[in-house]
Amino acid sequence: MSLEKEIDIILNECITQLKQNGCILYPTETVWGIGCDATNENAIEKIYQIKERTSEKSLIILVSSISMLKKYVPELSQNSITILETFPKPLTVIYPQVKGLAKNVHHADGSVAIRIIKNKFCEQLITAFEKPIVSTSANLSGQPTPLSFHSISQDILNRVDYIVNLPSFTGSGIPSTIAKFDDTNKLIIVRP
After folding, report:
1. DSSP letter (8 states) at residue 37
2. Of all helices (H) and strands (E), which one includes residue 43?
3. Beta strands of the chain (E only): which ranges?
4. All domains in the chain, ordered by first residue
5. Using alpha carbons only, what angle is made at residue 159 by residues 122 and 128, rounded to the nearest 5 degrees?
């Protein structure tokens, strides 16, 4: 079977799981992540349980494009869009106000961290699913972030509903830059 055909089968299974409140283990452009439908509170609660993490620690949300981002971030300036399109590495932006996402992905101050994915597999997945997905590193809370599929703990592997069978897919191993836009739409780096 060709890799393209195998990826189509995997994408279909991921979408089935996401639509059924499932949590998936999948590769991103940074690290392997645990994900679910970012609009589904029950699925998000499962991620907190899988990671043994408190809900006070917010989660990163992935979208596939600027147009998808605009559905959830009501006010996005042209300057912000230009920065998002040209930033040289994975960029997660904390937006103070969003709409349409589950309440339990919001930080206590109401903000949400969102990244436009720059990974072909994830972009295909989110585009086909037609909704944002959660992305949190595939580790128990407080444990080191696994840098490859083979370093993911058995606890995590046993707890997710579906594992993307592409163990050779690896990201950079470097978490994304985290930033926010100030009142003048200037990008302020929170974590390089």
Report:
1. B
2. helix 41-51
3. 24-27, 32-35, 60-63, 91-95, 112-116, 133-137, 162-163, 177-181, 187-191
4. 3-191 (3.90.870.10)
5. 25
The answer to whether the predicted template modeling score (pTM) of the entire model surpasses 0.90 is: yes
Q: Please count the other Cβ atoms lying within 10 Å of the Cβ belonging to residue 174.
A: 13
Taking only the tens place, the pLDDT of each residue in 101-149 is 999 999 989 899 999 998 899 999 999 999 999 999 999 999 998 888 9
Single-letter amino acid code for the residue at 16: T
* Segments in 130-190 forming alpha helices (H): 154-159
Q: Rounded distance, CA 48 to CA 76, Å?
A: 29
> Tokens 């994304």 identify what position?
176
Contacts of 3 (CB under 8 A, 6+ apart): none
Q: What does the angle CA 17 – CA 21 – CA 75 come to, to the nearest 5 degrees? A: 105
Q: Once rounded to an integer, what is the mean pLDDT over residues 71-89?
A: 92
How far does CA 50 lie from the centroid of its chain? 16
Tokens of residue 95, six digits = 């937006």
Task: Report the C-alpha gap between 129 and 61 in whole angstroms.
Answer: 14
- Of the candidates 111, 126, 125, the one whose C-alpha atom is nearest the C-alpha of residue 60 is 111
Please report the pLDDT score of residue 185 as a whole number.
86
CA 130/CA 68 separation, integer angstroms: 8
Torsion from C-alpha of 44, 52, 177, 71, nearest 10 degrees = 10
Burial class (CB in 10 A: 0-12, 13-18, 19+), 150: exposed
